[in-house]
Amino acid sequence: MEKLPAGLWSVPVPIPDNPLRYTLTYLIPGDTGVVVVDPGWNDDETWAALLAGLGTAGFGLGDVIGLVATHVHPDHHGLSLRLRAETGAWIAMHPAERDSMPQRFGVTTPEKRHAGMTRILRISGASDEEIDGLLGGGDGRGEPDFRMAEPDVLLEDGDPVPLPGRRIRTVWTPGHTPGHICLAEEDARLILTGDHVLPRISPNIGLGPVQDAEPLSAFLASLSKVAAYDDHDVLPAHEYRFRGLAARTSELIAHHEERCRELVAVVRSAGEPTMWETAKALTWSRPWEEIGRMRFAALGETAAHVQYLVHRGDLAWAPPAVPDGPARVRVAA
After folding, report:
1. Suppose 190 and one of 46, 89, 185, 302 were both cysteines; which one would form an S-S bond, judging by CB atoms 3.0 to 4.6 Å apart?
2. In this predicted model, what pLDDT tens digit does every residue of 35-61 receive, in sequence order?
3. How far apart, in whole angstroms, are the C-alpha atoms of residue 57 and residue 83?
């Protein structure tokens, strides 16, 4: 836990069974109470860590007046429902994030989510054996059933966070999710970047049923947008705080351009690969056989880059090898 400039606090709260290990939850005190940004995963251990962090900072549940979700992934927004029930605090997010919730978390059961993942994997060209190996067989029963809190407050780009005594502005940064936001405290030269910009790793930019039609284009534009806050301390939701936002955004843009070059080379070498074959041939942080369920995220990221390259004119969709077979991609003529 760390006390930050201007009276803010960062509280690491655990993410169970995840290589990221923790989410950095931020406490922002104002004249009338405390706003919690990204309270974390819905888990008793995470809840205990959040309560301990509030106590160390000199606050209790009665001081919490609001919650802001940079986005609705479970390691950020999962605990919001419980925290609102205990405190009566309002919950705020971007309208595009609110609009993504019915498909992602509304009526979806673990069984339906499992069936949807199976369908996506099959369309992408994964074999039944590969699908069973990735999802563990079965029908999804026993998997977590995520219940996500609907917002009370919607924050558009440029809107102030309703915390008296602070001037915190919403910066809409779509890409990682459609309604991802950063929060800029310009008086204190601080910017909370959620998962949009992390100091060491690149956030997943994946193509999915509730994602933008071209999430990579949106993400790259959002990187250029936040580069203007180069004189701010950067407070991300994972890893550690840092400075040099313009340099880091340039690194991320260069990373994705290099990824695009690699992907075109893979497609050129393979001829007309499926999405699964393309993803499997790309370079990842660990060998494909060792990344387990992260292959699903890798597949979504590959699809996002393919969609971007098709739009740019470097790649084109090829007809399936068999009727109703998986989609294939080729180098554009």
Report:
1. 185
2. 999 999 999 999 999 999 999 999 999
3. 17
CA pair distance 74, 15, nearest whole angstrom:
9
- Cβ-based burial of 93 (10 A; exposed 0-12, middle 13-18, buried ≥19): buried
Gap between the Cα atoms of 129 and 125, Å rounded: 11
CA–CA distance, 280 with 121 (Å, rounded to integer): 13
Q: What are phi and psi of 158, to 5 degrees?
A: 90, -10
Contact 305, 260 (CB under 8 A): yes
The domain segmentation of the chain, as residue ranges, is: 2-100+146-243, 262-331
List C-alpha distances in Å: 120 to 19, 167, 212, 288, 297. 24, 43, 17, 18, 12
Q: Which amino acid is at 153?
A: V
**Distance, CA of 212 to CA of 217 (rounded, Å):** 9
Q: From the DSSP assignment, how many helices (H) and strands (E) are in the chain?
A: 10, 13
Give 224's contacts (C-beta < 8 A, 6+ positions apart). Answer: 249, 253
Residue 105 DSSP class: I
User: What's the predicted TM-score (pTM) here?
Assistant: 0.92
Q: Does domain 2-100+146-243 have CATH number 3.60.15.10?
A: yes
Question: Among 141, 134, 154, 135, which Cα is nearest to 91's?
Answer: 154
